[in-house]
Protein backbone atom coordinates (compact mmCIF):
# COMPACT_ATOMS: atom_id res chain seq x y z
CA UNK A 1 0.00 0.00 0.00
CA UNK A 2 2.88 2.32 0.79
CA UNK A 3 4.36 1.56 -2.62
CA UNK A 4 1.02 2.39 -4.26
CA UNK A 5 0.90 5.75 -2.48
CA UNK A 6 4.48 6.50 -3.44
CA UNK A 7 3.70 5.59 -7.04
CA UNK A 8 0.65 7.88 -7.06
CA UNK A 9 2.70 10.72 -5.59
CA UNK A 10 5.42 10.22 -8.19
CA UNK A 11 2.82 10.19 -10.95
CA UNK A 12 1.25 13.42 -9.70
CA UNK A 13 4.67 15.03 -9.39
CA UNK A 14 5.58 13.87 -12.90
CA UNK A 15 2.33 15.20 -14.35
CA UNK A 16 2.89 18.56 -12.62
CA UNK A 17 6.41 18.70 -14.02
CA UNK A 18 5.17 17.82 -17.50
CA UNK A 19 2.44 20.45 -17.25
CA UNK A 20 5.00 23.04 -16.14
CA UNK A 21 7.24 22.27 -19.12
CA UNK A 22 4.23 22.39 -21.46
CA UNK A 23 3.27 25.82 -20.11
CA UNK A 24 6.85 27.04 -20.47
CA UNK A 25 6.94 25.84 -24.07
CA UNK A 26 3.60 27.57 -24.70
CA UNK A 27 5.04 30.81 -23.30
CA UNK A 28 8.00 30.61 -25.67
CA UNK A 29 5.75 29.90 -28.66
CA UNK A 30 3.46 32.76 -27.66
CA UNK A 31 6.49 35.04 -27.46
CA UNK A 32 7.27 34.32 -31.10
CA UNK A 33 3.64 35.05 -32.05
CA UNK A 34 3.78 38.33 -30.11
CA UNK A 35 7.05 39.32 -31.80
CA UNK A 36 5.65 38.66 -35.28
CA UNK A 37 2.39 40.50 -34.55
CA UNK A 38 4.32 43.47 -33.13
CA UNK A 39 6.49 43.90 -36.24
CA UNK A 40 4.52 46.96 -37.45
CA UNK A 41 5.79 48.56 -34.18
CA UNK A 42 2.52 50.30 -33.22
CA UNK A 43 0.79 46.93 -32.80
CA UNK A 44 2.81 45.91 -29.73
CA UNK A 45 0.02 46.43 -27.15
CA UNK A 46 -2.48 44.49 -29.27
CA UNK A 47 0.04 41.67 -29.73
CA UNK A 48 0.60 41.44 -25.97
CA UNK A 49 -3.17 41.52 -25.39
CA UNK A 50 -3.71 38.62 -27.78
CA UNK A 51 -0.78 36.72 -26.26
CA UNK A 52 -2.11 37.25 -22.74
CA UNK A 53 -5.54 36.00 -23.78
CA UNK A 54 -3.96 32.91 -25.30
CA UNK A 55 -1.98 32.15 -22.14
CA UNK A 56 -5.08 32.78 -20.04
CA UNK A 57 -6.93 30.15 -22.05
CA UNK A 58 -4.01 27.77 -21.60
CA UNK A 59 -4.08 28.27 -17.83
CA UNK A 60 -7.83 27.65 -17.80
CA UNK A 61 -7.31 24.43 -19.82
CA UNK A 62 -9.38 25.82 -22.69
CA UNK A 63 -8.69 25.06 -26.31
CA UNK A 64 -7.06 27.73 -28.40
CA UNK A 65 -4.24 28.16 -30.85
CA UNK A 66 -2.91 30.44 -33.55
CA UNK A 67 -6.38 31.02 -35.03
CA UNK A 68 -7.76 32.31 -31.73
CA UNK A 69 -4.63 34.40 -31.18
CA UNK A 70 -5.08 36.00 -34.61
CA UNK A 71 -8.76 36.74 -33.93
CA UNK A 72 -7.90 38.39 -30.60
CA UNK A 73 -5.12 40.37 -32.25
CA UNK A 74 -7.46 41.69 -34.95
CA UNK A 75 -9.94 42.78 -32.27
CA UNK A 76 -7.28 44.37 -30.05
CA UNK A 77 -5.49 46.24 -32.83
CA UNK A 78 -8.59 48.25 -33.84
CA UNK A 79 -7.89 50.76 -31.07
CA UNK A 80 -4.69 49.27 -29.70
CA UNK A 81 -2.55 50.78 -32.44
CA UNK A 82 -3.23 54.22 -30.90
CA UNK A 83 -1.77 52.97 -27.62
CA UNK A 84 1.27 51.74 -29.50
CA UNK A 85 1.65 55.11 -31.22
CA UNK A 86 1.43 56.90 -27.87
CA UNK A 87 4.10 54.57 -26.51
CA UNK A 88 6.50 55.47 -29.30
CA UNK A 89 5.79 59.17 -28.71
CA UNK A 90 6.66 58.72 -25.03
CA UNK A 91 9.88 56.94 -26.00
CA UNK A 92 10.79 59.87 -28.26
CA UNK A 93 10.28 62.32 -25.37
CA UNK A 94 12.52 60.25 -23.08
CA UNK A 95 15.14 60.05 -25.81
CA UNK A 96 15.12 63.86 -25.99
CA UNK A 97 15.51 63.97 -22.20
CA UNK A 98 18.54 61.70 -22.39
CA UNK A 99 20.02 63.92 -25.10
CA UNK A 100 19.51 66.91 -22.82
CA UNK A 101 21.37 65.09 -20.05
CA UNK A 102 24.30 64.36 -22.35
CA UNK A 103 24.37 67.97 -23.55
CA UNK A 104 24.92 69.14 -19.97
CA UNK A 105 21.62 71.02 -19.68
CA UNK A 106 21.10 72.34 -16.11
CA UNK A 107 18.82 69.93 -14.23
CA UNK A 108 19.24 67.45 -17.03
CA UNK A 109 20.12 64.40 -14.89
CA UNK A 110 17.00 64.84 -12.76
CA UNK A 111 14.76 65.33 -15.79
CA UNK A 112 16.35 62.33 -17.49
CA UNK A 113 15.89 60.07 -14.45
CA UNK A 114 12.25 61.11 -14.06
CA UNK A 115 11.64 60.53 -17.76
CA UNK A 116 13.15 57.03 -17.70
CA UNK A 117 11.16 56.06 -14.57
CA UNK A 118 7.97 57.43 -16.13
CA UNK A 119 8.62 55.42 -19.30
CA UNK A 120 9.17 52.22 -17.30
CA UNK A 121 5.94 52.89 -15.38
CA UNK A 122 4.07 53.47 -18.64
CA UNK A 123 5.38 50.20 -20.12
CA UNK A 124 4.36 48.27 -17.00
CA UNK A 125 0.90 49.86 -17.05
CA UNK A 126 0.56 49.00 -20.73
CA UNK A 127 1.47 45.36 -20.09
CA UNK A 128 -0.94 45.17 -17.16
CA UNK A 129 -3.70 46.64 -19.32
CA UNK A 130 -2.94 44.14 -22.10
CA UNK A 131 -3.07 41.27 -19.58
CA UNK A 132 -6.71 42.04 -18.72
CA UNK A 133 -7.86 43.06 -22.21
CA UNK A 134 -11.04 41.43 -23.51
CA UNK A 135 -12.75 41.91 -26.89
CA UNK A 136 -14.81 45.09 -26.79
CA UNK A 137 -12.93 46.56 -23.81
CA UNK A 138 -11.92 50.22 -23.88
CA UNK A 139 -8.17 50.69 -23.94
CA UNK A 140 -8.57 54.03 -22.16
CA UNK A 141 -10.37 52.40 -19.23
CA UNK A 142 -7.94 49.51 -19.16
CA UNK A 143 -4.95 51.85 -19.06
CA UNK A 144 -6.47 54.02 -16.34
CA UNK A 145 -7.08 50.99 -14.14
CA UNK A 146 -3.67 49.54 -14.95
CA UNK A 147 -1.93 52.81 -14.04
CA UNK A 148 -3.58 52.70 -10.60
CA UNK A 149 -2.58 49.08 -10.09
CA UNK A 150 0.97 49.83 -11.19
CA UNK A 151 1.30 52.33 -8.34
CA UNK A 152 -0.78 50.47 -5.72
CA UNK A 153 0.78 47.06 -6.40
CA UNK A 154 4.54 47.77 -6.51
CA UNK A 155 5.47 44.11 -5.95
CA UNK A 156 3.56 43.02 -9.04
CA UNK A 157 4.95 45.92 -11.05
CA UNK A 158 8.48 45.00 -9.98
CA UNK A 159 7.89 41.42 -11.17
CA UNK A 160 6.96 42.71 -14.63
CA UNK A 161 10.03 44.98 -14.67
CA UNK A 162 12.09 41.89 -13.88
CA UNK A 163 10.56 40.13 -16.87
CA UNK A 164 11.43 43.08 -19.08
CA UNK A 165 15.00 43.00 -17.75
CA UNK A 166 15.24 39.33 -18.77
CA UNK A 167 14.16 40.30 -22.30
CA UNK A 168 16.82 43.02 -22.44
CA UNK A 169 19.52 40.65 -21.15
CA UNK A 170 18.45 37.97 -23.63
CA UNK A 171 18.61 40.46 -26.49
CA UNK A 172 22.05 41.61 -25.34
CA UNK A 173 23.28 38.00 -25.22
CA UNK A 174 21.62 36.92 -28.46
CA UNK A 175 18.91 38.96 -30.20
CA UNK A 176 16.79 35.96 -31.34
CA UNK A 177 16.49 34.79 -27.72
CA UNK A 178 14.50 37.92 -26.85
CA UNK A 179 11.62 36.88 -29.12
CA UNK A 180 10.38 33.79 -27.25
CA UNK A 181 11.07 35.45 -23.88
CA UNK A 182 8.35 38.01 -24.72
CA UNK A 183 5.86 35.25 -23.96
CA UNK A 184 7.30 34.94 -20.45
CA UNK A 185 6.72 38.68 -19.94
CA UNK A 186 3.09 38.27 -21.04
CA UNK A 187 2.75 35.32 -18.67
CA UNK A 188 4.21 37.40 -15.83
CA UNK A 189 1.68 40.17 -16.51
CA UNK A 190 -1.18 37.66 -16.53
CA UNK A 191 0.04 36.12 -13.26
CA UNK A 192 0.42 39.55 -11.62
CA UNK A 193 -3.10 40.58 -12.63
CA UNK A 194 -4.59 37.29 -11.39
CA UNK A 195 -2.73 37.65 -8.10
CA UNK A 196 -4.00 41.21 -7.72
CA UNK A 197 -7.54 40.11 -8.54
CA UNK A 198 -7.44 37.36 -5.90
CA UNK A 199 -6.23 39.87 -3.33
UniProtKB/TrEMBL annotation:
Ranges annotated as spanning the membrane: 21-42, 80-98, 110-133, 158-191
The organism's place on the tree of life at top rank: Bacteria
UniProt keyword annotations, A-Z: Membrane, Transmembrane, Transmembrane helix
Protein name per its UniProtKB record: Uncharacterized protein
Amino acid sequence: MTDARAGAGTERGGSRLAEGFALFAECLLTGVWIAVAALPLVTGPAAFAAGSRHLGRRLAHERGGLREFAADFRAAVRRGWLVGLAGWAALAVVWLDVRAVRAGLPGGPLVGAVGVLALIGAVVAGLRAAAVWRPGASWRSLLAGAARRTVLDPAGSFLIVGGLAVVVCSAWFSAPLALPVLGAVAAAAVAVERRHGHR
